[in-house]
Amino acid sequence: MDTFFKPIFIWVFRYYFHILRISYLCSRWIIVFLPHIFFLLFSSSIAYISFLSFLTILLMISFMYLTLSRFQLFLSSYPRHIRFVAALG
Question: Which domain covers residue 45, as residue numbers?
Answer without folding.
Answer: 2-88
